[in-house]
């Protein structure tokens, strides 16, 4: 039998070039699987895939996949749009167009039940013509001259769904790519970003054509690429150290406020932003953990830690504004726009032409405020009005339609979108307008200014399951250190609290990402409405059929309560995220919602690390674990794909002192003999160039070699970090995970314990 981590002898110590000791790496019998595209390695993958498909791809799976695909391919779902000039642009996938259509329409047509779409680019046809499995990753328009239509765009296309893109110039009037032989831009596939400087010049940060990359696999340099030049000929205008995460260069082309920016993204949470002045970069003087953004004359600041300026401390998660030019010249006159409290955090903000929209969470339910810079409240801040558009336990986001639209007779500059959703509320798209005047909704006490608003429903998503049969509840569990951790529970209104309900617990807990209420027809069909054949309670009463319970945990490491909620689980404190998740599991069990044999957990990426630690540290709480595109080998994660970029989140395992705490949450090294592990499904994608597939491969291989029963592995051969490049792949991925969990948890006897 293969030795477990507890028995492995460490490899010899070595040193960095600077003579600093590097933490030893435990012996890794599966390191051969790190050759992602090796013939022998892919043969192992195909063998594993066949084994898993033999288990899961039965008649129930086929029906489940078809039901999920129907949701994803539905022609009745909302076609979300972005406004550019007089047109509204959308990217659309369905059964007839699995790779998708980039298209546009007019506002009048969009309002109709059957809009007339002008197809600009058919990705399926392009893939067939060029023999490349293109995945559309967006379009970036050149700002046209005043009075001219939007015509030229840079299209980002991934050859496999990964993060690396080929950027090609496209003419929306001729519906063709601009021929490189005629000077059209066509950048080789690589990671990076592209921004228009002017009609004949791009600002590019890329790793293509031999340009240097960082240790995180992203671009180190920014170049100015003129039409007709190669990247090798382009002028290098910006460069960062190799051990920083990535370089970005971009142009803000807002008329009257044109600015060129460069960002040295040091790590996930620290960066230096510079603006080009007199042909030289001028760094904006703020701590590296203060997030910056600009809008016309305003410079905005959101500190990740408490920020002391001239004796005044601005708390982490607050939002400040200052005059852009005044700040650069040395003045520090801030206006405080938002201050967090223990219940309320700022999630995002968006400018219309004259107003600022703040998207907040209050105990993980949405709240939206409208701020007016032209009017002051009693404290000297910008007048704030509460937008009456957010029902409890829902996620509602407001953002500008087109903040630069000043077209006469069709001025949308102060228009905003509202997107509202909930676990049992299909998504609704609304559009509103902001203007000075007497508001029809609540104004903060003591605030003097008001912003009037009207909004109306534009589109509504269809229903995919019988939502009226279910209710959403919010509960709070107490973690190991006494912290109250919220979670959402979606279940039948007649839920029996007898501990026998198949329950799926989902979480993430990292990178300040918030898990908010969201409608999912796939979860409704694949979990809530699925019925067991009959589960007998332990009290001896008659068995009866029941559906699934779906739970989302808002654990630390996420952003539900702002930066402090995230930083509480960083690096050496990572265990708090896992303790929070385990506390939610125990709370569900104590309330009688479920029991260990009926409770499963699911997570992807950082959420895969989360459930990998549930598997290895809390196996007694779960009957099954579905672990997707995961981090699992935390000793080598910095050497795999883009892993180096996450040192700020997890720590550096090469540093002996940091490896001492990282090893405590490295699932690959926590496996032990003699443990009754839950049934385990590990899934990933060959083309994932963010986390990569090898950590999932190695975990499955080690568990199987240790003789742990019911360990299953599946690797999609394309699809990137999402594991799917089209709806059919997405439906297959979701169906396998859901079917695995149901089989393990909803059997008459349960899977274990």
TrEMBL record:
One of its GO terms (cellular component) is cytosol. It comes from the Bacteria. Keywords: Hydrolase, Protease, Serine protease. Residues 545-746 form the Peptidase S9 prolyl oligopeptidase catalytic domain. Gene3D superfamilies: alpha/beta hydrolase, Prolyl oligopeptidase, N-terminal domain. The keyword Repeat does not apply. Residues 1-13 have a biased composition (Low complexity). Residues 1-22 are annotated as: Disordered. Coiled coil: none annotated. GO terms for molecular function: oligopeptidase activity; serine-type endopeptidase activity. GO terms for biological process: proteolysis. Residues 27-251 form the Peptidase S9A N-terminal domain. Its EC number is 3.4.21.26. InterPro entries: AB_hydrolase_fold, Pept_S9A_N, Peptidase_S9_cat, Peptidase_S9A, Prolyl_oligopep/macrocyclase. PANTHER family: PROLYL ENDOPEPTIDASE (PTHR42881). This is Prolyl oligopeptidase. It comes from Arthrobacter bambusae.
């Amino acid at each position: 039998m293969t030795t477990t981590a507890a028995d492995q002898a460490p490899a010899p110590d070595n040193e960095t070039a600077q003579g600093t000791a590097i933490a030893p790496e435990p012996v890794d019998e599966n390191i051969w699987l790190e050759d992602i595209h090796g013939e022998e390695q892919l043969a192992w993958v195909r063998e594993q895939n066949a084994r898993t498909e033999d288990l899961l791809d039965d008649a129930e799976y086929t029906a489940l996949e078809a039901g999920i695909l129907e949701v994803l391919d539905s022609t009745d779902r909302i076609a979300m749009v972005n406004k550019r000039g007089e047109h509204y642009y959308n990217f659309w996938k369905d059964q007839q167009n699995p790779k998708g259509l980039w298209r546009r329409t007019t506002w009048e047509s969009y309002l109709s039940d059957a809009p007339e779409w002008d197809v600009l680019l058919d990705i399926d046809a392009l893939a067939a013509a060029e023999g490349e499995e293109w995945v559309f990753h967006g379009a970036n328009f050149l700002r046209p001259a005043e009075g001219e239509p939007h015509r030229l765009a840079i299209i980002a296309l991934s050859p496999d769904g990964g993060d690396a893109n080929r950027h090609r110039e496209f003419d929306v009037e001729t519906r063709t790519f601009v021929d490189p032989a005629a000077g059209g831009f066509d950048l080789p596939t690589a990671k990076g970003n592209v921004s228009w400087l002017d009609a004949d010049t791009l600002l590019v940060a890329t790793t293509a054509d031999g340009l240097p990359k960082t240790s995180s696999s992203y671009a180190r340099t920014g170049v100015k690429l003129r039409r007709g030049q190669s990247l090798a000929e382009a002028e290098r205008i910006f460069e960062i150290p190799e051990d920083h995460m990535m370089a970005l260069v971009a142009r803000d082309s807002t008329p009257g406020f044109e600015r060129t920016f460069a960002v040295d993204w040091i790590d996930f949470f620290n960066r230096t932003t510079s603006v080009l002045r007199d042909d030289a970069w001028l760094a904006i003087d703020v701590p590296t953990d203060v997030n910056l953004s600009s809008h016309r004359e305003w410079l905005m600041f959101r500190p990740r830690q408490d920020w002391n300026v001239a004796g005044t401390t601005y708390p982490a998660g607050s939002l400040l504004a200052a005059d852009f030019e005044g700040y650069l010249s040395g003045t520090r006159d801030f206006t405080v726009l938002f201050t967090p409290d223990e219940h309320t955090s700022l999630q995002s903000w968006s400018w219309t032409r004259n107003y600022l929209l703040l998207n907040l969470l209050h105990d993980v339910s949405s709240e939206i405020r409208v701020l007016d810079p032209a009017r002051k409240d009693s404290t000297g801040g910008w007048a704030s009005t509460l937008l009456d558009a957010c029902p409890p336990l829902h996620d509602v986001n407001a953002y500008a339609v087109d903040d630069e639209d000043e077209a006469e007779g069709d001025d949308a500059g102060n228009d905003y979108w509202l997107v509202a959703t909930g676990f049992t509320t299909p998504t609704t798209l609304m559009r509103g307008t902001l203007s000075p005047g007497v508001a029809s909704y609540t104004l903060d006490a003591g605030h003097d200014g008001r912003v009037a608003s009207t909004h109306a429903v534009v589109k509504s998503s269809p229903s995919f399951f019988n939502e009226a049969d279910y209710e959403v509840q919010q509960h709070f569990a107490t973690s190991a250190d006494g912290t109250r951790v919220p979670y959402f529970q979606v279940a039948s209104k007649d839920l029996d609290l007898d501990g026998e309900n198949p329950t799926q617990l989902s979480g993430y807990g990292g990178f300040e990402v918030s898990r908010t209420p969201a409608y999912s027809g796939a979860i409704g069909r694949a979990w809530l409405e699925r019925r067991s054949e009959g589960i007998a309670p332990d009290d001896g009463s008659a068995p009866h059929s029941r559906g699934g319970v779906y739970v989302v945990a808002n654990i630390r490491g996420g952003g539900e309560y702002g930066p402090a909620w995230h930083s509480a689980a960083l690096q050496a404190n990572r265990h708090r995220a896992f303790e929070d998740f385990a506390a939610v599991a125990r709370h569900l069990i104590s309330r009688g919602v479920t029991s260990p044999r009926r409770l499963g957990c699911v997570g992807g990426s950082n959420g895969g690390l989360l459930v990998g630690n549930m598997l290895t540290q809390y196996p007694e709480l779960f009957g099954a674990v579905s672990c997707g595109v995961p981090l699992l080998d935390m000793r080598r994660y910095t050497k795999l794909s883009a892993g180096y970029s996450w040192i700020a989140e997890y720590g550096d395992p090469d540093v002996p002192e940091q490896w001492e705490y990282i090893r405590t949450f490295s699932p690959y090294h926590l496996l032990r003999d003699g443990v009754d592990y839950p049934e385990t499904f590990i899934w990933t994608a060959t083309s994932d160039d963010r986390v990569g597939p090898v950590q999932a491969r190695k975990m499955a291989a080690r568990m199987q070699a240790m003789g742990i029963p019911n360990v299953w592995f599946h690797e999609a051969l394309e699809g990137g970090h999402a594991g799917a490049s089209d709806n059919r792949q997405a439906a297959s991925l979701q169906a396998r995970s859901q079917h695995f969990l149901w089989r393990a948890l909803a059997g008459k006897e349960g899977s274990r314990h």
